[in-house]
């Protein structure tokens, strides 16, 4: 029986018993949602993880890049071999791995003890009882100078539990490798050509909604103390703006992992082939493909030649290189934009994540959706898609240029960015001065207080304070010698817990930055679907899955993995004040040179994008040249055709095998 007859019979029995293409897209879209939610939540927790495990930004970059490491381990094999088997079940298995990896990332919280931070307001087991230490007093020995019990027995310098996060992220990356290449090629196989781009655009739109919830979830979790339910909130003496604050980073992984597990289940109930939409005879190819399952050996024989054909495509190669440069800049941006905004504008992690979610993510989602609409409405071919992608990318980049002018000043920290005395030159090295020389303040201490002279001091000890009033977050410090050295009276020489506030204009620039970024994302994403379609339309139909897989592999190997690591090291190079671990050794950075950070962050991203756009313009030129060559070939064939005098002669020539053979040779 012919396949068309079988398909017709299935339709006559009722479509309610068979999953449709739209059903598959709906299930896949929910998986895209959970994937992007988890990914964005991971980005939002970078600062929290850095502080909780007392590690550097470059180490956090390794954790973030481990997702790409897991992905690249299997992406090529899955893209090529997975397309020959039961794709929905393979995607379902990948989603289960993603759920397991995500839940594993929350495990360290349950294996570690409570979070401890050094502060002048320490508390005993009774959360309401506070004791004061670390003030400038010649009688009391500074507790930070005392050895920590247990460290001499080999206690690690910082917790090694971050390795569990790395392993969990690798597992999550392995599972995600099935989602994009198999899911999108499956849709492209069964959808009409004019609808394929629209469906893919809708898919990515739903996927981009995930970060909206991911950053919102990150904001909520960051506002909750890490040991929520175990510690009395009143006993926590640090605020959300403090560089030692750690939110409930683990809670979001539990939520995201549960949702991913739910998304994995429907794939196991989908058939190997979906009911097809009546279109051209080419739709029989997917059905024929599924009538016989080739052996692994048969498939492997064709892998080498297929890869060679793919990599010999000049347009595809240039497309990959240009994407790689742009992708490096994109990875740096989405990975470190929360940290950049926190440091540059002095905002808390919770507020930063929330505002990124509600401003940038809707712009991205709307842009991606409209990009699919543009492809469908104007029926853009390969050249049209390339042109739209290029011009929207450049236009989006132009909106980011004013961000170079949006900056705040470094906060004035005595001994770091400001002087202890008004008449002295700025000290960039050393945190001690004559006003606190007899206090025995350790250089490793970080418990900032804000003096009435609008200068931040590393600790009350470094401010030379001798008395306290109040408890917890409301504690104030009095009779501070270093504050008096600015010409203030003893009555006005007090300080309060926490860093001094930034200038009032800083908040305005923060919101302007978010607005410009939202507009930039929207314009850039208008060309996102056309940009992705190039990888499908610039290669032969049977190489579509492999082309997407190779694209993702190269982007991950040379972009997704190294970008967070090398830029994390660059961020570390701008650190002005490091924290120290419990048993010694450098921990997380407490304060950065935000001016240098701004030029490095925005400058490197801009350079990568400019070089990428230059290469992408060459891609557009190549595509245009190829289409012009093809058009000339068609015109030549038309000119070579004989002029037919009457319908009978035309019919006779159509039936003449020699004539038809000659016409094919011209073609």
UniProtKB/TrEMBL annotation:
| Membrane topology note | Multi-pass membrane protein
Q: Which residues form the Major facilitator superfamily (MFS) profile domain?
A: 24-624
Localization: Cell membrane
Keyword list, A-Z: Cell membrane, Disulfide bond, Ion transport, Membrane, Transmembrane, Transmembrane helix, Transport
Instruction: Just give the chief location class.
Output: membrane
GO BP, sorted A to Z: monoatomic ion transport; sodium-independent organic anion transport
Sequence similarity: Belongs to the organo anion transporter (TC 2.A.60) family.
- One of the record's GO molecular function terms: sodium-independent organic anion transmembrane transporter activity
Species annotation: Triplophysa rosa
Domain Kazal-like stretches: 429-484
Please name the taxonomic classification of the source. Eukaryota, Metazoa, Chordata, Craniata, Vertebrata
InterPro entries, sorted = Kazal_dom, Kazal_dom_sf, MFS_dom, MFS_trans_sf, OATP
Put simply, this protein is called Solute carrier organic anion transporter family member
């Amino acid at each position: 029986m012919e396949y068309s007859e079988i398909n017709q019979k299935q339709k006559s029995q009722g479509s309610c018993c068979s999953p449709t293409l739209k059903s598959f897209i709906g299930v896949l879209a929910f998986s895209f949602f959970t994937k992007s939610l988890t990914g964005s939540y991971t980005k939002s927790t970078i600062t929290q993880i850095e502080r909780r495990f007392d590690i550097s930004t470059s180490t956090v970059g390794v954790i973030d890049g481990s997702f790409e490491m897991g992905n690249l381990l299997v992406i090529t094999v899955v893209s090529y071999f997975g397309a020959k088997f039961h794709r929905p079940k393979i995607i379902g298995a990948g989603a289960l791995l993603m759920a397991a990896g995500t839940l594993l990332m929350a495990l360290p919280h349950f294996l570690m003890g409570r979070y401890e931070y050094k502060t002048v307001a320490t508390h005993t087991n009774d959360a309401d009882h506070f004791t004061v230490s670390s003030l400038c007093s010649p009688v009391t020995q500074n507790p930070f100078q005392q050895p920590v019990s247990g460290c001499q027995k080999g206690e690690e310098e910082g917790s090694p539990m971050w390795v569990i996060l790395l392993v969990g992220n690798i597992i999550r990356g392995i599972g995600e490798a099935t989602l994009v290449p198999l899911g999108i090629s499956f849709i492209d196989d069964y959808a009409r050509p004019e609808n394929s781009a629209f469906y893919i655009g809708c898919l990515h739109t739903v996927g981009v909604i995930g970060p909206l919830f991911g950053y919102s979830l990150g904001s909520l979790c960051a506002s909750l103390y890490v040991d929520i339910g175990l510690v009395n909130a009143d006993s926590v003496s640090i605020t959300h703006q403090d560089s030692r604050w750690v939110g409930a980073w683990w809670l979001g992984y539990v939520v995201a992992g549960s949702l991913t597990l739910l998304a994995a289940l429907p794939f196991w109930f989908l058939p190997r082939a979906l009911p097809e939409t009546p279109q051209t005879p080419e739709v029989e190819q997917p059905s024929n493909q599924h009538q016989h399952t080739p052996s692994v050996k048969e498939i492997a024989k064709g892998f080498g030649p297929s890869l060679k054909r793919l990599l010999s495509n000049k347009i595809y190669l240039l497309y990959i290189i240009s994407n790689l440069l742009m992708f490096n800049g994109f990875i740096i941006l989405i990975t470190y934009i929360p940290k950049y905004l926190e440091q540059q504008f002095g905002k808390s992690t919770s507020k930063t994540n929330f505002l990124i979610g509600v401003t940038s993510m809707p712009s991205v989602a709307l842009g991606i959706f409209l990009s699919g609409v543009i492809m469908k409405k104007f029926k853009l071919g390969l050249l049209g898609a390339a042109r739209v992608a290029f011009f929207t990318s450049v236009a989006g980049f132009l909106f980011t240029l004013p961000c170079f002018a949006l900056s705040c000043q470094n906060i004035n920290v005595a001994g770091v960015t400001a002087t202890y005395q008004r008449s002295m030159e700025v000290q960039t090295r050393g945190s001690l001065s004559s006003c606190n020389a007899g206090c025995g303040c350790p250089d490793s201490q970080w418990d900032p207080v804000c003096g009435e002279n609008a200068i931040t001091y590393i600790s009350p000890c470094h401010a030379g304070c001798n008395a306290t009033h109040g408890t917890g977050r409301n504690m104030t410090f009095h009779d501070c010698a270093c504050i008096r050295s600015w010409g203030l009276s003893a009555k006005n020489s007090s300080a309060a817990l926490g860093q001094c506030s930034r200038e009032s204009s800083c908040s305005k620039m923060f919101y302007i930055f978010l607005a410009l970024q939202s507009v930039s994302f929207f314009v850039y994403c208008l060309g996102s679907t056309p940009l992705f379609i190039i990888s499908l339309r610039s290669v032969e139909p049977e190489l579509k899955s492999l082309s997407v897989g190779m694209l993702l592999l190269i982007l991950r190997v040379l972009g997704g993995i190294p970008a967070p690591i090398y830029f994390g090291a660059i961020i570390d190079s701008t650190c002005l004040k490091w924290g120290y671990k419990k048993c010694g050794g450098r921990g997380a950075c407490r304060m950065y040179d935000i001016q240098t950070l701004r030029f490095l962050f925005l400058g490197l991203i801009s350079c990568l994008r400019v070089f990428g756009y230059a290469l992408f313009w060459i891609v557009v030129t190549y595509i245009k040249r190829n289409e012009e060559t093809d058009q000339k070939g068609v015109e030549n064939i038309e000119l070579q055709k004989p002029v037919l005098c009457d319908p009978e002669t035309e019919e006779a020539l159509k039936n003449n095998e020699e004539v038809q053979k000659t016409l094919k040779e011209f073609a």
